[in-house]
Amino acid sequence: xxxxxxxxxxxxxxxxxxxxxxxxxxxxxxxxxxxxxxxxxxxxxxxxxxxxxxxxxxxxxxxxxxxxxxxxx
Length: 73
Ligand SMILES: [Zn+2]
Description:
The chain is mainly β and 73 residues long. The chain has one domain (4-67). It has one helix and six strands; from the N terminus they run ββαββββ. The protein has one helix at 13-21; strands spanning 4-6, 9-11, 27-37, 44-53, 56-63, 69-71. The radius of gyration is 11 Å and the shape is globular. The structure holds zinc ion. This is Small CPxCG-related zinc finger protein. InterPro entries: DUF5795.
């Protein structure tokens, strides 16, 4: 299990990917720490690999402290 706190709430990898993507992924890997800080607030950034569709694999990034999110598309 790799649940982490994001914006004060405990999230699973699937929920974290949903926060990045805007809709639930088909599959999500476990949550990791990204190797950079949030460009908005300097907070810790988490990364999660997920599949928004069967043909696509994306790495999403989400700040633990603010609303900032991005992906590697
Ligand atoms: Zn932030």
